[in-house]
Amino acid sequence: MMSQPLKTFLLCSSLAFALPSTAEVHLIFKASNNPEDKKAKDLALAPSEHVLNFVNAELDLHGDLDIIYGAEDGPLFDPKTMSIQIPYEFVHEVYRRFTTDKYHEQGIDEAQATGDAIMHTLLHEYGHAYVFANEVPVLGKEEDAVDNLATILLLNFFENGDEIAYSAADLFALEDQDTSEYTESHFWDEHSLDAQRYFSTLCLIYGSDPEKYATMFEQEQIDEERDRFCIEEFEHQTQAWFEALQLSEYAEDKAKSTQ
User: Fold this and answer.
1) How confident is the model at residue 60 (pLDDT cuts 50, 70, 90)?
2) pLDDT tens figures, 233-254
3) What's the number of CA atoms in the CB half-sphere (13 Å) around residue 181?
4) Can you tell me the mean pLDDT for 25-36?
5) Distance CA 98, CA 206 (A)
6) 86, 48 Cβ separation under 8 angstroms
7) Could you count the other beta carbons within 10 Å of the beta carbon of residue 28?
8) How far is CA 45 from CA 64, 118, 131, in A?
9) What is the tens place of the pLDDT at every residue in 158-170?
10) Per-residue pLDDT tens for 177-191?
């Protein structure tokens, strides 16, 4: 039997969630001082507005948040100023990596791939903001947790979200190429290794649609039931984050639509 204090807590929580939120996420572009920065703004504008519209409509953040392009450092979430800070140089670097890799040969032009990676990055940093502002408990490394969140949101809420997440995963793979050998500092870092972030993202993509990505795994991995693990991991991460984000009604509707 549920105790009276617990009943009161759940009632208050549900009433608080029902109240309309006045908090908003704002998108700010600092002055672009050269043609490269202006190009970075052009590359970032549409994907950033897409993410902005989604989080303002669907995710109830307890406090206003600014997404600032043209920052000195980042990408990062700064809890002191409640802002996500992204330098124009980061956008340049992402575009350069995809261009050097001739990413268009995979059927996605470099500008689109850059936008995809930016969407994943913004959702990742928004995850930090949500965890901080809404006091969400995280067991384990927060960087891994919000990596998963960004991918889960793309896969569940965004059109062609799997393709967007795939571009983001490929960026991790490209960044991993910068590492010729590992030192202790790599293992002390708050982030997992880029190669691990790449495979973790692919795992969730596979788990979201095993038929579409049936050729992702080698036979050796199938024998080790890695494919089964990724299906379970996608389901687990989706359920856990939907509960943390108070998206249970959406989860129920989705479950009904698949029956």
Assistant:
1) confident
2) 999 999 999 998 987 555 555 5
3) 1
4) 92
5) 23
6) no
7) 13
8) 20, 10, 25
9) 999 999 999 999 9
10) 766 565 555 544 556
Is the C-alpha dihedral spanning 75, 78, 83, 88 positive or negative?
negative
Q: What is the 3-state secondary structure (H, E, C) of the chain?
A: CCCHHHHHHHHHHHHHHHCCCCCCEEEEECCCCCHHHHHHHHHHHHHHHHHHHHHHHHCCCCCCEEEEECCCCCCEEECCCCEEEECHHHHHHHHHHHHHCCHHHHCCCHHHHHHHHHHHHHHHHHHHHHHHHCCCCCCCCHHHHHHHHHHHHHHHHCCCHHHHHHHHHHHHHHHHCCCCCCCHHHHHCCCCCHHHHHHHHHHHHHHHCCCCCCCCCCHHHHHCCHHHHHHHHHHHHHHHHHHHCCCHHHHHHHHHHCC
